[in-house]
Design brief:
globular, binds 6-O-phosphono-beta-D-glucopyranose, alpha/beta, TIM Barrel, 15 helices
């Protein structure tokens, strides 16, 4: 069967500043953490060992073109642009981002720019990071500076990439700095992130720029083990905590009432100011990026909560391993293609069918060199992964969902936080020692799909 996509469909991939650029003066939390605890990172590889986009941006953009990208998302590094987060703007960073943006446009690739992709300037973390409202203000200033510098050419802005992840990693589950385990502080960080988002949207609207502003959320549909009310309730609470804690503010301009009630009853609500609600209402977006990797399956808890243990989302559910689930064993994530359709239908039916696109979808695989045939990685599993998701996305579009594009994670194999280079995600293989780039079979498949605006399956 032939799957064709709407005219002007966005085909591309996503990456981020910290994971690709290298060579940076401004210190981030990642540089600081890596210097203190290199053992936390796979094979002791830290954030300075990248695919060196800072040096190779021009030839990398040629590769994007070779892959027939019509759009590409990356982020600006706050710490590169404003090394201490709040002070002087670094003119070399302005030159660098101007060159990248201009070259993308020159090559017919629409730049999509994220303002924050997990890379907090260390100077900002030292004063409390997202727990401190001064950092929220500093971020708003940084956003405004970016709009003023690049907003004449960048027409698709994203305030945050997956804002729940620094909350989970840094304040609940110990996989980002500052490795705090404290729900109330996590809730404060999440709340202040929403305020920072809304301030950036306000600044963008005030500047009357020609483009649009949105956010990228990792939406993990919550599936209950069964329709037993106890399982359904568990899935509902997981959905409130991990999806709707950001989705509702940015699309409806307010938090779900039952999330607020739940957290209030456990005394976990962050401190709010009376003027916050009006600001949050101003944060409604024009365009939603959806990152989809895996579903969340839950069931009601099998055991009673230990009242001495820290308050956690898991007080309300257990994770459920569905028998027969399809797994990506390298990343430990379930592969469930219909999830992409369920997300789009939920947006259509419950959120007014907003303009959206798939901003990340991808499959990280270990030791891909074993798949080399005639000098090229034959990653048929990745082509199957992409085409499987695209068929469900296609079904969503054919049923009226307002999905405008599909971006893969990622372009060139890149540094994946604590997993460093363990799992490779790219359309292009990176030899970390020589920096040589080699297009994988999936890259060729994607180039053809983008060119034809369709694929056969
Ligand atoms: C997303 C992020 O969570 O998934 C990326 O936006 C990340 O930054 C990607 O690299 C893949 O996840 P991971 O943890 O395997 O790198």
């Amino acid at each position: 069967m032939k799957y064709s996509f709407p005219e002007h469909f966005w085909w591309g991939s996503a990456s981020s500043a910290l994971q690709t650029e290298g060579t940076r003066e401004g210190q981030t939390t990642w540089d600081y953490w890596f210097a203190r605890e290199p053992n936390r990172f796979h094979n002791g590889v830290g954030p300075q060992q990248t695919s060196t986009f800072y040096q190779h941006w021009k030839t990398d953009i040629q590769l994007l073109k070779q892959l027939n990208h019509n759009s590409f998302r990356t982020s600006i590094s706050w710490a590169r642009l404003i090394p201490d987060g709040i002070g002087e703007v670094n003119p070399q960073a302005v030159d660098f981002y101007n060159q990248v943006i201009d070259e993308l446009i020159e090559q017919g690739i629409t730049p999509f720019i994220t303002l924050f992709h997990f890379d907090m300037p260390m100077a900002m973390q030292e004063i409390g990071g997202w727990e401190n409202r001064d950092v929220v203000e500093a971020y708003a200033r940084y956003a405004q500076i970016c709009f003023e510098l690049f907003g004449d050419r960048v027409l698709h802005w994203f305030t945050f990439n997956e804002p729940i992840v620094p909350v989970e990693g840094g304040y609940l589950y110990d996989f980002h700095y500052p490795n705090v385990v404290d729900f109330r502080r996590a809730a404060t960080v999440a709340y202040h992130t929403v305020l920072a988002h809304a301030l950036a949207v306000r600044a963008y609207r005030a500047g009357h720029y020609a483009g649009e502003i949105g956010i990228v959320l990792n939406l993990t549909p919550s599936y209950p083990r069964s329709q037993n009310p106890a399982d359904v309730k568990a899935a509902h609470i997981a959905d409130l905590m991990f999806n709707r804690s950001f989705l509702d503010p940015v699309l409806r301009g307010e938090y779900p009432a039952d999330l607020v009630t739940l957290l209030k009853s456990y005394d976990q609500l962050p401190a709010c100011k009376p003027e916050d609600s009006a600001l949050i209402a101003e944060g409604k977006i024009d365009l939603l990026g959806v990152n989809y990797y895996q579903p969340r399956r839950v069931k009601c808890r099998d055991s009673a909560v230990n009242p001495q243990a820290p308050f956690m989302p898991e007080w309300f559910f257990d994770n459920y391993e569905m028998p027969g689930r399809k797994m990506n064993p390298y990343r430990g994530w379930e592969i469930y293609e219909p999830g992409i359709y369920d997300i789009l239908v939920n947006l259509r039916d419950n959120y007014g069918n907003p303009r959206c696109f798939i901003s990340e979808n991808g499959m990280g695989v270990e030791n891909e060199k074993r798949f080399i045939e005639n000098g090229q990685i034959n990653d048929q599993y990745r082509i199957d992964f992409i085409s499987g998701h695209l068929t469900w996305l296609h079904k969503g579009i054919s049923e009226g969902c307002n999905c405008l594009g599909y971006h893969m994670w990622t372009f060139i194999d890149n540094w994946s936080w604590c997993n460093a280079y363990k799992n490779r995600y790219g359309f292009i293989q990176l030899d970390l020692d020589t920096q040589q780039r080699t297009v994988k079979k999936s890259g060729e498949w994607f180039a053809a799909t983008s060119l034809n605006n369709s694929f056969d399956k």
